[in-house]
Task: inverse folding
């Protein structure tokens, strides 16, 4: 039967409804929700409505086909306190891994059949929390999340990105070219990326962007990339001045294709020494500098060699068919366990810009709280 929807306009739900079935503000998928602007009486103007709009994806999605249509999220009026959020709850929330068996899979996932970009964000203030993106498709250059240059604040947290396709250049999180202000603030935290043909996080010709990339786990990225893309970092197509770009990259596990840099700015041609970069307490699959264009005086490198299936990082299952990237109990003796940087001092000063009232930033991908001075590296915290 149909889900019972709340009467106010601060929430909307997507569940396993029958085709064409709606009840109040319930929609069968993300596209009809976007088309009706969540049923808000102000047609998506959250500033006039004076409240955020939270789309809660709920329900048991076992034996249910995935949401198969990508979408462009646009036409909403937002600001810092009246933002747009997509999140999962209850059975629809993943358990920190993908269940590949449709008969037992309860979590919601997006698996578009078109092969184009899955979500293009054109809303100034947006949060994407707890979704599973599986199989981008066969289209070259497709992106899982494309962030347009008109975005002001975006947080992408607690999601799982699984590609497993051979088409080249498919990036999980891609920032579109941006050459002028105002500055965009972004946080990418507690996400899992695996079996990607392209980059996990890529800023393409992006100026006036400040990005915090914290506690993510990347397994086998850059598998089919014909251009010199890093698994996490910047790429410019010509001479650009990145003087207004900041990357803060901490506590990440990155297992990248050996022919790609785990963290890089590539190519470095014409860079005007303007990237303001911090890189602390990351474990990467390569120990080469791989950071062309980063200003040495602003870079703090702490990268150790990390064969993901080797002696440094242990996960519960590193097979791509049934990957479980939670830290295994024998991780206590390796470099991921308790070697992360306590990010509370890093995050609290920017709370008025990005995180105040948005979500609990000190939890891991499973919602388990990280404790000060006991942070692990990667998306999972091992209690």
Result:
């Amino acid at each position: 039967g149909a889900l019972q929807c709340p009467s106010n306009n601060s929430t909307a739900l997507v569940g396993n409804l029958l085709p064409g079935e709606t009840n109040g503000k319930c929609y069968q998928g993300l596209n009809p929700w976007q088309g009706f602007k969540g049923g808000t009486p102000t047609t998506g103007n959250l500033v006039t409505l004076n409240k955020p709009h939270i789309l809660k994806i709920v329900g048991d999605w076992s034996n249910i086909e995935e949401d198969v249509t990508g979408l462009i999220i646009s036409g909403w009026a937002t600001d810092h306190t009246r933002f747009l959020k997509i999140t999962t709850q209850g059975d629809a929330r993943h358990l920190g891994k993908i269940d590949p068996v449709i008969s037992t899979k309860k979590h919601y996932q997006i698996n578009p059949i078109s092969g184009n970009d899955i979500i293009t964000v054109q809303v100034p203030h947006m949060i994407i929390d707890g979704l599973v993106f599986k199989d981008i498709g066969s289209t070259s250059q497709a992106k899982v999340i494309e962030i347009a240059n008109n975005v002001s604040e975006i947080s992408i947290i607690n999601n799982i990105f699984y590609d497993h396709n051979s088409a080249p250049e498919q990036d999980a999180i891609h920032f579109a070219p941006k050459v002028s202000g105002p500055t965009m603030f972004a946080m990418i935290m507690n996400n899992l990326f695996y079996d990607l043909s392209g980059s996990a996080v890529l800023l393409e010709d992006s100026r006036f962007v400040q990005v915090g990339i914290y506690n993510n786990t990347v397994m086998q990225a850059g598998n089919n990339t014909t251009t010199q893309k890093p698994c996490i970092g910047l790429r410019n197509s010509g001479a650009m001045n990145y003087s207004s770009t900041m990357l803060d990259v901490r506590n990440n596990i990155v297992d990248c294709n050996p022919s790609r840099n785990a963290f890089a700015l590539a190519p470095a041609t014409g860079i005007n020494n303007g990237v303001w970069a911090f890189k602390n307490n990351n474990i990467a699959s390569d120990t080469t500098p791989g950071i062309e264009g980063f200003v040495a005086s602003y870079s703090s490198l702490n990268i150790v060699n990390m064969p993901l299936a080797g002696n440094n990082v242990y996960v519960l299952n590193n097979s791509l068919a049934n990957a479980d990237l939670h830290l295994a109990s024998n991780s206590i003796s390796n470099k991921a366990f308790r070697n992360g940087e306590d990010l509370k001092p890093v995050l609290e000063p920017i709370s008025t810009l990005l995180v105040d009232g948005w979500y609990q930033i000190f939890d891991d991908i499973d919602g388990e709280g990280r404790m000060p001075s006991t942070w692990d590296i990667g998306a999972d915290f091992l209690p």
